[in-house]
Amino acid sequence: MFERRNRGVRVLRQLGRLGVWYPIDRLDGAGIKGLLRKVEELGYSTFWYPEAVGYESLSIASFMLANTTRLIIGSSIANIYARDPFTARRGLLTLSGLYDDRFILGLGVSHAPMVERRGHVYDKPVPAMRRYLDGVYEDPSNAAEWPLAIAALGPLMLKLAAERTAGALPYNVTPEHTRAARAALGPDKLLVAEQKVCLETDAAKARSLARRELHRYMTMTNYRNNWLRLGFTEADLAAGGSDRFIDAMVLWGDPETITRGLRAHLGAGATQVCIQPVHAEGDTEARDRTLTALADV
After folding, report:
1. Is 96 helix (H, G, I), strand (E, B) or coil?
2. 151 φ, ψ to 5°?
3. What 8-state DSSP symbol labels residue 147?
4. Whole-model pTM?
5. Is the peptide bond before 77 cis (omega within 30 degrees of 0)?
């Protein structure tokens, strides 16, 4: 098993510079297959997906791995309150073993309202994640050899990512955060920055779509605290978000403008930037146009 984990982490370290992040809970099985086919055809190296209110993380990963041939599939993130550490370990080893080491287990502490709905008590994030990792690893001394990364925003979680995992998966961040995260992680750790993009040149329309997409995150303490650390103000986070905040969170415009923003993450030290297309609800054509336009970044 250790040899297999070594192979898995080598795959992880060879990630391409561009991946895709998409909320698959909005899609049925046929829709997921169609999206994966498009992502793979366009040459993206990695597909990242969340665990929120729909599909269970490890079983949907198996479905996606079975319906792709080259694409690396990464959970971003699997909620640590959804399964015990032993199950997470066995899930990682099972998926890696059956699908040619194409699975990355991304773990996260989620958010208090989502955890409490499950009947759990939401604990302090960093100690909770540290205990969970203690249960996942068979031998903590080789933790960096597992294809496992964690959602990390603040300095303490980034420190834990550097010490105990292959790297970090920050979400809703800016290139400034990417630069600070790279400094905290060191030069050799995985750093995958999620970035929302909207292929729309009309400012009013783009910002309207962006506010609709960001609305669900605006009340979540983990994100708000990180945005304040990044220099945004309470006023920036009020009433759906200031234009300054919205433009930082969602890159919009023509492909050249968006590409400059994506390259800013790479220049700041991201191993990979994963794009999340922002579009009108159900507009899969706009989603696929976005993926096609940005595939050569």
Report:
1. helix
2. -70, 120
3. S
4. 0.94
5. yes
